[in-house]
Design goal:
Immunoglobulin-like, 6-stranded antiparallel β-sheet, 3 domains, alpha+beta, Serine Threonine Protein Phosphatase 5, Tetratricopeptide repeat, elongated
């Protein structure tokens, strides 16, 4: 209803715009017509006066006088009629309703052909419905066929297919999205994953091709990194599997199922890869972390744990992100949490661990944050154990 109300307002504005010249230009023709008509009347009266003078002087008979007056009157009426016709023709008021109707009909027909009315209906249906119905899916599919270059429809169709377990359909929909935007990282990663599931979790030629293409476009794509880790694991290349999964885990919420699954995969790869993989992981920093009960906080607030080189640059060597609801907890920081490529915990001898309860959700310290900072810990000999309680308000 709001859509058609808006269209009606636009058509009303268009009608006023078209009607404006008809009414603003009307006075001038009327004034000109009145002047001409008055001139004709004056001419008629002058003729009438002359005919009367001729009659009184005996130059014409009474019958001739009556005949000449009748002819003058007919001429006056004819001139007046022609003036009124010209005024009406110049005004063209009869054309105004025709133009308004034509504009309205043409606008509605054009909008039905190229407008976004169906798109708005679909958007409203998506907002109102908790789950997709068969009619909604059919409407979106039909609209996608009508607008084949609209990536939005192919994407939501693909995501719905994934949610319903139709991986074959999802792969087809993602392929349509990639046709429109060939270098879209999200679509490339999801397409490779959908093909992987369609091919019974096997790395077929088309899966490998899709995976490599996505990785070439965005080496940080978490979906692709997870797939490459699985492929390396199946090939018994456990160091590479660990490397890919560690990269995929960066940026994920440690409380999420995805992060937990990656950690299990990393642990399994280490066990299968032998002791050298555990040693290669470098020092391990075990932290027992809690929040002072006197601090008021929300369970969904983020807690950032960072390992910083003592007396070194402020850039963390390794970091982890938790939610406040997960504390108190025990966690282990290692090179799997490294933030800087090519720089490991084993490259330094002494570190400081900082745990901070963020008030803003940002990794950058802000006024109102609470934190705990450990004493410098020597990690040159291997693992260390620390106990931290967040109880100090951050001050700049």
């Amino acid at each position: 209803m709001s859509l058609w109300f808006g269209i009606a307002l636009l058509l009303l504005a268009a009608g006023l715009f078209v009607a404006f010249p008809f009414f603003t230009g009307r006075r001038a023709p009327e004034e000109s017509a009145n002047t001409t008509e008055q001139a004709n009347v004056d001419i008629f009266r002058d003729q009438q006066y002359q005919y009367q003078q001729q009659l009184e002087r005996g130059e014409i008979s009474a019958q001739q006088h009556q005949q000449m007056l009748a002819e003058a009157e007919q001429l006056l009426l004819a001139n007046t009629a022609r003036i009124q016709q010209r005024v009406a023709a110049r005004e063209g008021l009869w054309l105004l309703p025709v133009l308004v109707v034509v504009i309205a009909l043409a606008s509605v027909m054009i909008y039905r052909g190229i407008g976004a009315g169906p798109d708005q209906q679909i958007a409203e249906a998506l907002r109102e419905q908790q789950s997709w119905t068969a009619d909604l899916k059919a409407s979106i599919a039909q609209r996608a066929e009508q607008r084949p270059d609209n990536i939005y429809y192919w994407t939501i169709l693909a995501e719905n297919a994934v949610a319903s377990g139709d991986m074959s359909g999802a792969a087809d929909y993602f392929a349509e999205g990639i046709r429109i935007q060939p270098n879209e990282s999200y679509l490339l990663g999801q397409y490779a994953q959908a093909l992987f599931f369609v091919d019974a979790n096997l790395f077929s030629d088309r899966v490998l091709a899709a995976m490599d293409r996505a990785y070439a476009v965005d080496p940080s794509n978490q979906t692709v990194l997870g797939l490459k880790g699985i492929h390396a694991f199946q090939e018994a290349d456990y160091p590479r599997a660990i490397s890919y999964w560690q990269a995929a885990a960066r940026g994920l919420n440690p409380a999420s199922d995805g992060w937990q699954a990656l950690q299990k995969g990393i642990q399994q790869a280490r066990q299968l890869g032998g002791p050298e993989l555990i040693v290669a992981d470098g020092p391990r920093i075990a932290v027992s972390l809690s929040i002072d009960p006197a601090i008021q906080f929300s369970p969904d607030q983020l807690v950032f744990i960072a390992v910083i080189e003592a007396n070194g640059p402020p850039m963390p060597l390794a970091a982890r992100k938790l939610s406040a609801a997960q504390l108190p907890t025990e966690l282990v920081l290692s090179d799997s949490d490294a933030l800087i490529a090519g720089r490991k915990l084993g490259d330094v001898s002494s570190v400081v661990v900082v745990a901070r309860l963020s008030s803003s959700g940002s990794a950058t310290p802000q006024q109102g944050d609470w934190q705990a900072i450990s004493e410098p810990a020597d990690i040159s000999s291997g693992s260390v154990n620390l106990k931290l309680k967040i109880d100090t308000e951050f001050r700049q």
